[in-house]
Each structure stands twice: as C-alpha cells, then as structure tokens.
What does this fold into?
Amino acid sequence: MGPEAGELPRRRGHLAVLVLWAIASVVLVFTTVRPWMPTIGIFAGGADLDVYRDGARHVMEDLPLYTEPVIHGLLYTYTPFSTLMFIPFGLLPGGIDRYIWMGANLVLLVAIVALCWRMLGYRITPYLVGVSALLAVACTFLEPVRTTLFYGQINLVLMALVLWDVSRGENSKLKGVGVGIAAGIKLTPAYFVLYYLVLRQWRAAAVAVGTIAATIGASWLVLPNDSWQYWTKTFFESTRIAQDEHPSNQSIRGVIAHLTGKPAPTVLWVVLAAIVVVVSMWIVLRLHRGGEHLLAVTVAGLSAAAVSPFSWSHHWVWFVPLLVYIVHRALTNWWWWLAALVIAVATGAWPYRWDEYVVVVGLFLFPPWWTVADVLMNIYILLYVGVLIGAGIVAARCTPDGVHDQVPAADANRT
It folds into this structure.
C-alpha cells in the first residue's frame, strides 16, 4: 500500500509537470471548444442533470417515470431510487442547478484524488491537497471527466461512494454501504459486490447486497407503480439507452457491434465478458493481496465499464484513480510519466468539427472514413487491454502483504 502514513514527497520536477499539465488542460478545455458554444460548450450542457431533475419532478407530481419521455424527449433509464436522490434538485429552478452541480463535482474530483493518495498510504496534508487540486484540474480535459461535467452526470459521485467504501477497514460495519447506495442509484456499481466476494470480504458483500435491497424496498414503498414498471419491464430493455453500434458505446459489446456493423450476438458478448471478468478478478485478487489496493479497485472499476452492455464514455472516470496511481509510481521512476501521457492523450476531449454547426468531442466520434477509425472508435477498450496487461505485470511481481517498486518510507518523508 506504499508508505505507512507518510507525506507525499516534494519533488520540484514532478510538481512542475503537474502544474504544466493542469495549465494545458484548462487552456484546452476553454479553447478547443468555445465554453458557451450551443449544445457542446462546457457551460452549455447539463442535459443529463435536466433529466435527473425532471425525473424527480415527475415523481413529485405523480407522473409516470418510464412510460413516457421526460425533458428533451429523453427516456429515464435510472432506478426509481435515483429520483429520490434528486428531489432537492427538482425544487431548484433550471439554470442554477447546473452550476451548483458542476462546482460540487469539481470539489468532489479533488476529494477523489486526495482519497486515492490516502489509499496509497500518504497522509492528508495541505501540500497533498494542493497536489490533488492540480491533478484534478489536469484531469478536466479527460473526455470522461469533461463529459461528466458537461452533461451534469453522476459518475464522479458513484466513483466517490465506491472509493470511500473500499478504502474503509475490513472490520468496518459500514463497509458495503457506499457500494450499495451507488448501485441503488445506478446498476453498474453492483459489480463491486463481486469485487468483495473475490476478496472474501463476506460481510462487506452482504452489507452491499442488503443496502441495494433497502434502496429497492424504500423506493418501492414510495413509488410502487414506477418500481413495478422498472423492475419488471424497463430493466430488461437494453436498447432503451442506445443501439449497440453507437460509437460512444465504449464496451466489449460495443466493440463487437462496431466491427460487425450490427448488434452484438449475446452469446459472444457473454463469453468474452466472462473471460474478462475471470482474468481481471484474478489480477484484482493478486494486487489486493500484494497491497496494491488502489490499482486493484481501479482495475475493477475499469472492468465494470468494459463488461457492461452499454458504457458511455463518461462511465470511464476510473481513468482518474489510474492516473493518480501512475503519478505515484512516477515519483520514483520518470518513465511512468509516459504512461500518464498515453492515457491523457488517448482519452483527451479532442474536438472534431463535422461541419459549421456540428462539433463532437472524443476520438471515438471522429469520422468513420478515417483509416484509423476502427482504432479510434474502440479506443477505451484498447486502452483497457493495455491497462489490464500492465496491471497483470504488476500483480505478477507482487508478494503477499507487500509490493515491489513502491516509494520507500524514507523517500516519502523527504522534503
């Protein structure tokens, strides 16, 4: 797990890299696409937050949640429990909430980075918080983060709940609650129940399952009709989100559809996903036993996005803790900065102007007639394969209750 409650080492060269990276990210966010550009500027979004808010208003006004579109003609796809969480936003006038939510997400991003450092064994100090703020700003140009902020998405909130949960001691009675609440809002975090089972943290798994059941039960009491509709019908409508072939479907199922030009065969997807689950969980188990807790949960988070039937690019916010881990390793080996560069460039919010009025963000949305289109359209899964290989190498070098190549405690306290 790295140095035991050691201070983050103060290395001027590494700090300079972070400062330059943060500055570059801010410049790119505000110059590659005009901030107020209609439908795509960073301050001209909030569509998903509108959906959350309108879903909350639907249940407040006793309107059907799933059988008719909500705002913007979009369909509500989250659990009934999620609407209860967004009732406070349903009480706010439109326009104000998007800035409150974006500001809260930026603060949360800093807290997530700081929590990742803490999971690596560093003590929370003013310097660490400052470095966390720099790295958080640097991550704003990552397409998953930029899109989360732009749409007003909840991915950072869900990831924070999971990280808070897994970072708790194994004897904590609350361990499992964070995963359960996150899964109660959106189903994907339920993958971490498997994470707990693989690690033989039975009580955490049971608490997570119990919490999920509690969210379902509570929402069923408050919203019986919507709950019946969701859990008996809507839950099984996978195409309700979008077609498999959509270029933003950055999942294994999406890759199959992209390459074949038609919906992925269910059997093929299930087999490939099962193989990925087995391999990734072996790596997770090995990493966890070797003390690489942050990398272990990061691999699990990335794997959840990979095996999900449909993963929008903003589901891949797990690249943030991955970058924290990479920067941590770069403190003792400068070559790790190359890995950070690859992740930052490949997942950057690079825009492409299709015509005078249409601008898209993200390499996977670039023109399909480009020679490298098949690579770009599946960029996140390709990165995931690389990360899985790299994590497998780290896992193979791990020894029980200890890891190689970590920052020595003496270095960690050096100023």
In short: The radius of gyration is 21 Å. Residues 96-119 form the longest helix (24 residues). The longest strand covers residues 351-353.
